[in-house]
Amino acid sequence: MTLTTDNNQWTPPFPTQLRAVVSPVLAAVAQPRPGTAVAMSAAGVTLFALVGAGAPNHNTLTVPITWRALPAMPDPLSQTVVIAAVVLSCLGTLGMLGARRRGWSPDSRLLFRSGALAVLVVANLTPVGSSDTASYAAYGRIAALGGDPYLTSPAELGGPYARLVALAWHDTPSVYGPVATWWQTAAAFLGGERPWLTIWVLMLANALVFLATGLLLMRTADDPVRAGLLWVANPLLIGVLVAGGHLDTLVAALAVAAILVARRTPRLRNDLLMGGLVGLACCVKISAALLGVALAWPLLRAGAWRRVARQATAAVLTVALLYSVYGLHALDPLSAASRMISSPSLWTVFDRLGSALLGPDATATAIRLLWPALMLALAWVLHRRTPTGSPPAVAVPFVLAFAWVLTAPWSMPWYAALAWAPAALCPQGRLTRYLVVTTAALALVHNSGGHGWTA
Predict the structure, then answer these.
(1) At what angle do helices 195-220 and 108-123 cross, to 10 degrees?
(2) For residue 1, pLDDT beyond 70
(3) I need a surface site. Which of 50, 132, 262, 361 has the fewest CB within 10 A?
(4) If you average pLDDT over residues 137-156, what whole number do you get?
(5) Span 394-446, pLDDT tens digits
(6) 296, 260 in Cβ contact below 8 A?
(7) Using CA atoms in the order 84, 87, 89, 90, what is the torsion angle rounded to 10 degrees?
(8) Residue 164 in contact with residue 61, Cβ under 8 Å?
(9) Triad 142, 148, 153: Cα angle to 5°
(10) Per residue in 167-191, pLDDT tens?
């Protein structure tokens, strides 16, 4: 801006001249600039894909895809590429959300198609970041052969399926619900004696559920573009959930359906349907019980006891009916899993100090009592920071799931899917940015495929 002087005194221009000069400057500053963020997001997904295509390596399963054209990626290189992929995806997601807050409004259909293309690419490569899909395939193979995956471990199965499972889970029967088992069994029927085909089927099915969830979110959210950026076009989720092939995608899909039903007109059939959906989610992973608690809490505060009773009854009956196919022993592996602590974690230090002072059993009991209390307290703090006007049926599931990811003794980046799904239906707020950073931090810590591979 140019100013004139008179006897060495600054003389400002007329107001009309000032507005003519300042307005373009302010417009340029306020203009959203998503180009860099989009480029970082695309680069992040591309790097995830390169790691999957360069399998087997430290961040993928030991079985390579049959149609890969790239040579196996050395372990140090794969680690470096995954770290770069997570960082770029985190920065790209934050940048695109920031551009959206400043007015960036991409075409929602183009947004979905771009995300779908990225999803389908990584789904047709070797799983990245976790060996869980190998465990899924092994449990499915056990069931397909007529065995009980809640009594039989991958080590007892043996053969090519067991060799893909991480050593930490070799002797562990399935900790997943019956719906997850049937999902895995269907893939194993198709894969037969070819583990790579079973895993590929699981990856494709997971990708389709991810895309269906994104489509549902974009069609029901008040801001479809933001919903798309938080789910289907989110490079961080594509890398963690889709490239990893995790069952948490299915849990998130059922959570979205339950939340949308909960926001409908209060009716008996809606309450029963919502409870049934929560029960189905619990029969994938028992951690989905948090969703039932979150959806019941606003009703309890409003005194709608009958509705809570109907929803809880439908959920419990669904879980009981589906678990009855296998029996109560299907819950036994969950007891052992509940004592696990991921590292690094705030509970790791507590466990070591407590074990030395109080003993392992007393420390484990203390942790089981303390972390739910800490989770509820943090959820209350987070809820006070949700944007004004956030529907309780959306805000409470979001903050409770987010608090669970932050405080649970065993927490993985893909667990955040239960928080990302309702976040896509929430208004703009700072908590979403914290969720991005939390997911990225967990992904950086837990970015190994569970195998060190040697030729």
Answers:
(1) 170
(2) no
(3) 361
(4) 96
(5) 999 999 999 999 999 999 999 999 999 999 998 888 899 999 999 999 999 88
(6) no
(7) 180
(8) yes
(9) 65
(10) 888 999 999 999 999 999 999 999 9
Q: Which pLDDT score, from 0 to 100, does residue 66 have?
A: 66
Q: What pLDDT, in 10s, does the model give residues 328-347?
A: 889 888 777 777 888 777 88
- How much is the pLDDT for 448? 64
CA distance 420 to 28: 32
Please state, for a pLDDT cut of 70, what percent of the chain lies above it: 90
φ/ψ region of 7 (left if φ > 0, alpha if ψ in -120 to 50, else beta) reads left
Cβ pair 38, 104 in contact under 8 A: no
3-class secondary structure, 297:
helix
Rounded Cα distance, 184 and 134, in Å: 10
Angle between helices 346-357 and 360-383 (to 10 degrees): 150
Q: Which structure tokens are listed for 373?
A: 């209390």
* 137/143 Cα distance (integer angstroms): 10
CA 274 to chain centre: 21
**Structure token digits, residue 318:** 């669904």
* Amino acid identity, position 134: A
Q: Which residue has the tokens 């649970």?
A: 408
Helix/strand/coil percent split, the chain, to 5:
70, 0, 30
DSSP 360-393: HHHHHHHHHHHHHHHHHHHHHHHHTTSPTT--HH
Calculate the CA 305 to chain-centre distance: 31
- Given a cut of 60, whether residue 453 has pLDDT beyond it is no
The mean pLDDT of the chain is 88
Among candidate residues 258, 197, 220, 236, the one with its CA nearest the CA of residue 88 = 236
DSSP lists the bridge partners of residue 4 as: 11
Quick one: pLDDT band at residue 318, thresholds 50, 70, 90? very high
**CB distance 444 to 240 below 8 Å:** no
Contact (Cβ atoms closer than 8 angstroms) between residue 403 and residue 235: no
Q: Are 449 and 127 in contact (CB under 8 A)?
A: yes
Q: Using the Cα atoms of residue 233, residue 404, residue 182 and residue 240 in order, give the sign of their dihedral.
A: positive
